[in-house]
Amino acid sequence: MSDIIQLLPDSVANQIAAGEVIQRPASVIKELVENAVDAGAHSIKVLIVDAGRTLVQVIDDGIGMSETDARLAFERHATSKIRKADDLFALHTMGFRGEALPSIAAVAQVQLTTRHRGEDIGTQLTLNGSQVVSQVPVACPVGSNFRVENLFFNVPARRRFLKTNATELNNILTAFERITLVYPEIAFTLHSNGQELVSLKEGTLRQRIADVFGKKQSQDLLPINVDTALCSISGFVGKPEAARKKGSHTFFFVNGRYMKHAYFHKAVSGAYERLVPEGMQVPYFIYFNVAPADIDVNIHPTKTEIKFENEQPIWQILSAAVKDAIGRFCEVPAIDFDTEGRPDIPVFDPQRDSVQMPPLKYNDHYNPFKDVPPTNRRPTVVPDWQRLYEPAGSGLFDDSKEPEATIPTDGSDSQADLPLLTDKSPTHYQYKGRYIMTAVRSGLMIIDQHRADIRIRYEHYLAQLSQHQSNTQRLLFPEVVQLSPSDDVVMQRIMPELANVGFDLSPLGGATYSVGGVPAGMEGLNPVSLVSSLVADAIEAGSSTTEQLHATLALSLARNAAIPQGQVLGNDEMEHIVSQLFACTNVNYTPDGKSILFILPQHDIEQHLG
């Protein structure tokens, strides 16, 4: 029997490795920018065309590479970061595996132009699908210039499964932000199709956060700084009033590397218990500095999952640090400036036998009831208490006013099964400011007023989006909303749809917009928070088709504008909600599948009451 096991060619092995390391254009940028950081660059420029499909170019002013190193860098497991296995537990660099460059070269056409510091001439290396095409000496500045063209040109299936340009660009900006937040001392720029999207100058960490996410975000942050034998923790956490339902910026970094850590996230969110409403998230930018031997980053090729040796003690340190920052923020001294006209309250003196009451001036001859004409006196009101004892059927609880109802309890949405509202307006009752209760033929109907209003408004906004009809309420003073570069990509995509529902938005440049008007009926809402919430919902939904985008925006608008839980309603308001609800296409469920109403059958009521 002949031997059947053989070594794979390097080109095939590189393509296999590329499947894990290089998932999309954002992966290319992450690996190349991290290499530039490790090379000691002070300025890093990123240029992309067609969201990285056509071109990804990364230019840095680091130490560069020699002719030999440039060629060797594209070999598998060739790295300058480690020499032996023990070095894995003393890592101080972003990369260490030596897989990134060969993986990129395996699925793209790559050109590297580089010159090492101290050399007079550089090297230009060209590769096509792991195959070296040419290597020639060139004149170039110190540093490295990587051009990655036609990503996945030799893997058509991978190229076809890339998302839309807007989605891929958003992924690129997200990966770019994670690196820029770690190195505020490095200047970064990002250009897309010749247009500058991000320009960040070197500065402090707070300045970098303000440049990326806006000055408002920076103003809502509290500093944390703690140094222990196990680790040091620094950075910023948000003030309680900065909490948001969606789109809150939460970042963990360890030894300069972005990480995801659900356990540490609970430590931060737990510190805000009872300070922010349930479901709200406070932003934070937290940086851990841990001995490299106490963590393991060699778990996944993306290096975002990191294991800690002392996880529980660090959790306790983090929780205490966040609580301390919140506590120092809440300790505001009470300075009372308004003392004019107040009575002089004496201080207790144990040496004195008694404390005299401060003198009070008053007119002892004044009588408010003296010489008042009898016609101006308020008449005595005698309550109509007899009406409380009238027999059933003659007053409030008249069975003849009971509307018919045939709402199915099995979740059917058929119009034929909906309740038939009579011409006589039924009397509705509100329970705890949350539920509308009304009598129907089959029993007692209980409606969640907030969810019912979400369904009503959702269908209203959905119709506006599809018909391009809107009513705009102009703001007296326009508001300014500043977004992050990644949020701005989504904003540009949904702006036409926002205009269809009544928003008046004007771009001011630099991911900043002026809000001059909002849809009619939303005048009482904060326009900045409203726009930010819409963008966050669009990012979370990741809608690609127009119909999906319309549904996402309509639901987000409905949630923001719906009647809140606890709002007291009059009978006319409740009647309006009920009638509008039963005109909807689905009365049983909200667009996200939550129950709106249910009926307590008459038989069950009688059975419980014996």
List the helices and strands and how they pair.
Layout: H1 10-21, H2 25-38, E1 43-49, E2 55-60, H3 67-72, H4 100-106, E3 109-115, E4 122-128, E5 131-138, E6 143-149, H5 156-160, H6 165-180, E7 187-192, E8 195-200, H7 205-213, H8 215-219, E9 221-227, E10 231-238, E11 250-254, E12 257-259, H9 262-271, E13 284-290, E14 295-296, E15 307-308, H10 311-330, E16 429-431, E17 435-440, E18 443-448, H11 449-467, E19 472-482, H12 485-500, E20 504-507, E21 512-519, H13 527-541, H14 546-561, H15 571-581, E22 597-601, H16 602-608
Helix pairs in contact: 1-4, 2-6, 6-12, 9-10, 11-14, 11-15, 12-13, 13-14
Description:
With 610 residues, the chain is an alpha+beta fold. Residues 82-89, 332-337, 375-383, 391-406 and 408-418 have low confidence and may be disordered. It has an 8-stranded mixed β-sheet with strand order 5-4-3-6-2-1-7-8. The chain is globular and about 105 Å long. Helix 9 packs parallel to helix 10 (311-330). Strand 17 and strand 18 (443-448) form a beta hairpin. It has helices at 10-21, 25-38, 67-72, 100-106, 156-160, 165-180, 205-213, 215-219, 262-271, 311-330, 449-467, 485-500, 527-541, 546-561, 571-581, 602-608; strands at residues 43-49, 55-60, 109-115, 122-128, 131-138, 143-149, 187-192, 195-200, 221-227, 231-238, 250-254, 257-259, 284-290, 295-296, 307-308, 429-431, 435-440, 443-448, 472-482, 504-507, 512-519, 597-601.
